[in-house]
Amino acid sequence: MPASLRYTKEPHKETYSEIIDVRSSSEFAEDCIPGAVNLPVLNDAERAEVGTIYKQLSPFQARKIGAALVSKNISQHLEEHFVNKEKNYQPLIYCWRGGQRSASLATVLSQIGWRVTLLEGGYKTYRSYVRQQLDSLPRKLNYRILCGLTGSGKTHILEKMRRRGFQILDLEALANHRGSLLGEQWRGKVSPQPTQKYFDSKLLQALQSFDRYETVWVESESSKIGEVHLPKSLWKEMKQSSCVEIQLPLDARVEYLLAEYPHLINNPEILKAKLEKLKSNCGWKKISQWYRMINNQDWASFVKDILQSHYDPTYRKSMQLNFNQVEKVVCLNDLSPSSIDNCLDSLVPSFVGIT
Question: Cα-atom radius of gyration of the chain, to the nearest Å?
């Protein structure tokens, strides 16, 4: 017997067998509800075809062609994706606005007998929820900021903290960027950042996972990491939070950075092109000096000089402006496991569990 369709505007309050996004692959790639699977009822080319016919020829003709394409795609999904679903299967389905695309698949599935829920307003309802949560939730958490000059190993230390049971908000991992001119992630080639919307979704998912009664540790980032922006509410809370500053000798910082950025050493022309963007701040004379060091493969001298000439002054200025509530300074000789363990031991009595 066919099951009646259900509707919701608050999908986060229920649990479903599966969340199905019926939008095209390009829409899905921009952002989606976390955990959703993409089963387009119209792919990108089909959407473009139907849209063109609708505007240039006839809405009626467009609807006929669209219905045929949707039916074909749903048939394929039934044969491939839904073939082994049990009788108690209960999916949530959404499209862009909660209109015909999601309703078409939902109607077929409910006629089979599955209990199907449609998201009223579609993805736009979910996106509104994300914006509201990112405005309010950051204010309910307690943060501590891990500071330190470039190359101090802050991200490395945060990962060690995670393994020790600290609550960590790794913004660079969520943004897929290290937060500086040279901070693009590299996996054989440049690894793209998420869209702003997808970053927001991943950030909200991370924030919702935290215990509100325990400290959340986060690195001293700027309000923009690569091309994505932090929510204003989170940025405000970060700037008002107390800080722990990591101090590491210059030579140890150089050694760490050389190990962390091999892709730039292996692609000097890419590095030079990026450095040219600093010409207005550092001057062409300094850029030329760096180019000579790169050409001579004098990497240690180059890293040391760019730290002292550019990164350290810039970071100190940012610290004075945004993260000036330093309550503890931890001096490390290096980033060896024993040094980091001693660092983390020193943080436990002062910060873990403080609300």
Answer: 25
Would the pLDDT of 349 be above 90? no
Closest Cα to residue 217, out of 260, 149, 163? 163
Decide if pLDDT at 33 tops 90. Answer: yes
Walk across the sheet containing 6-8 and list its strands. Answer: 6-8, 117-119, 91-94, 18-21, 37-38
CB burial class (10 A; 0-12, 13-18, 19+) of residue 80? exposed
C-alpha count within 13 angstroms, C-beta hemisphere, residue 286: 16
pLDDT of 205: 97
**pTM to 2 decimal places:** 0.91
Q: Is 32 annotated as catalytic?
A: no
Rounded to 5 degrees, φ, ψ at 144 are: -130, 135
Rounded CA separation 320/335 (Å): 25
When the pLDDT of each residue in the chain is averaged and rounded to a whole number, the result is 93
Do the beta carbons of residue 198 and residue 148 sit within 8 Å? Answer: no
Catalytic residue among 95, 147, 243, 343: 95
DSSP three-state, residue 21: strand
H or E segment to which residue 38 belongs: strand 37-38
